[in-house]
Each structure stands twice: as structure tokens, then as C-alpha cells.
């Protein structure tokens, strides 16, 4: 078990300033560089729906009237 010690900001207004605790767990190496990105416009190619086949099932990626993406099985 590891212990992490956090220090609070110093000064008269230290408690008045908001702060966030993001995580006490060690962070994993970022994989953003290895993550492939594809634009929805490239996937849909002007259409409003795309069918994705995955492990014998069909998933529907739909573009709504409000330009939101919905993935359903």
C-alpha cells in the first residue's frame, strides 16, 4: 500500500480558491499518440447511417437531426 501526501496552497486566500483532486492513483502512460482518429464525415461519407459488423452482430451509427452520433445494436 502506498501513501500520497498532498500539500494545500499557502496564503491568506488559499481556502477561498477552488482546487480539484484529479486522482490519487498513478497515471498510466498516455496512449493518445497510438490512438487512431477518424472523422465522422469520413466514416459516413454524406450518409446519415452506417452499419458496423462486429463479432456477428450489426451496430448502427446514426447521425441525428441535432448532429449527434448514436450507436445502437
Explain how this protein is built.
The chain has one helix at residues 40-44; strands at 49-54, 57-63, 69-72. With 73 residues, it is mainly beta. It has a domain at 40-72: Complement Module, domain 1. A three-stranded antiparallel beta sheet has the order 1-2-3, with no helix packed on it. The longest helix has 5 residues, at 40-44. The protein is elongated and about 55 Å long. The mean pLDDT is 79. This is Hemin transporter HemP. It comes from Dyella japonica DSM 16301.
Q: Helical segment tally?
A: 1
What is the CATH class designation of the domain at 40-72? Answer: Mainly Beta
Q: What is the CA-atom radius of gyration, in angstroms? A: 22 Å
- Beta-strand residue fraction: 15-25%
CATH topology of the domain at 40-72: Complement Module, domain 1
- At the fourth CATH level, what is the homologous superfamily of the domain at 40-72? Complement Module, domain 1
Helix share bin: under 10%
Q: Any idea what the CATH architecture of the domain at 40-72 is?
A: Ribbon
Low-confidence stretches: none
Distance between the termini: 42 Å
User: Class by helix and strand content?
Assistant: mainly beta
Strand order of the largest sheet: 1-2-3
Q: What is the total tally of β strands? A: 3
Silhouette: elongated
User: How does the major sheet shape up?
Assistant: 3 strands, antiparallel
| Mean pLDDT over all positions | 79
State the order of secondary-structure elements, H for helix, E for strand.
Answer: HEEE
Strand-helix topology:
Layout: H1 40-44, E1 49-54, E2 57-63, E3 69-72
Antiparallel strand pairs: 1-2, 2-3
Amino acid at each position: 500500500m502506498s501513501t500520497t501526501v498532498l500539500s494545500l496552497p499557502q496564503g491568506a486566500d488559499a481556502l477561498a480558491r477552488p482546487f480539484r483532486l484529479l486522482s490519487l492513483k498513478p497515471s498510466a502512460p498516455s496512449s493518445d499518440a497510438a490512438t487512431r482518429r477518424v472523422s465522422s464525415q469520413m466514416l459516413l461519407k454524406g450518409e446519415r447511417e452506417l452499419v458496423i459488423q462486429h463479432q456477428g452482430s450489426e451496430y448502427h451509427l446514426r447521425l441525428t437531426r441535432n448532429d449527434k452520433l448514436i450507436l445502437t445494436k
